[in-house]
Amino acid sequence: MRIFDPHIHMTSRTTDDYLAMYDSGVRALVEPSFWLGQPRTSPASFYDYFDALLGWEPFRAAQYGIAHHCTLALNPKEAGDPRCAPVLDALPRYLVKDGVVAVGEIGYDSMTPAEDHALAAQLQLAADHGLPALVHTPHRDKLAGLRRTVDAVRESALPPERVLLDHLNETTVKEARDSGCWLGFSIYPDTKMDEDRMVAVLRAYGTEKVLVNSAADWGRSDPLKTRKVADAMLAAGFTSADVEQVLWANPVAFYGQSGRLQLDVPAPRSAHEGNSILRGGE
Ligand SMILES: [Zn+2]
């Protein structure tokens, strides 16, 4: 079984996680840019982070046989912070880079006017750069957040087939599907969606345009949730072709719209800009 995790924050994970993910079948992933768990105090903090997602993290992933791509954006949590607003003007010089397969994650956190502005501006950036967009939907007040998100997409120049609405659940899946966007589900250990609920959603809505991710970060999360959903699908009677569609072909089709997916893992190099993942050198 081969697995593509379309949303996972590897910068917060260990090399043991890369090893376990490879052993579970993960061969490709997309790491969206997000916040740090605490507010950034200047735009420069974003640029070092973007560079890490384009350089150091793909280097680390390749050591474990996993193809790494990223999405870059001013994230929803910080979109309303005036200290971070200059990031919007700097994004064009990052969005042209080969490792970037979408603008993201963008979207609403508290649904403020500043977030409206950042979302609209970044949907436009995606359209201008020929990239799809990964759109986070809010964890609070989910259905109102989904509706406002779909309205923002409709008002944008980006067609719905280039938009992935993420963090969906049973309350938002129907309207999200009716929007024509791709459907993303984040599977967590003890809150929000779990693998059995995911299987029920797949039974009700089918496998078309559905992506499943672990969204793992430094919070309570599990980087093997993609594999656990695959196993739960098989146990529930889905075929291995269904599993392949949800866990591989759908993410490849969605991010492939960027024209930049490189699924052959680059040969591992011993160092990135002079730094290795070994302790104390060879
Ligand atoms: Zn995320």
From TrEMBL:
Which Gene3D superfamilies is this protein grouped with?
Answer: Metal-dependent hydrolases
**Pfam families (UniProt xref):** TatD_DNase
**What keyword terms does UniProt attach to this protein?**
Hydrolase, Metal-binding
Locate the coiled-coil region(s) and give their ranges: none
One MF term in GO for this entry? hydrolase activity
Q: Does the keyword Zinc-finger apply?
A: no
Keyword Lipid biosynthesis among UniProt keywords? no
As for family, the record states: Belongs to the metallo-dependent hydrolases superfamily.
Q: What is this protein called?
A: TatD family hydrolase
The record's section on InterPro entries has: Metal_Hydrolase (IPR032466), TatD-like (IPR001130), UCP005295 (IPR012022)
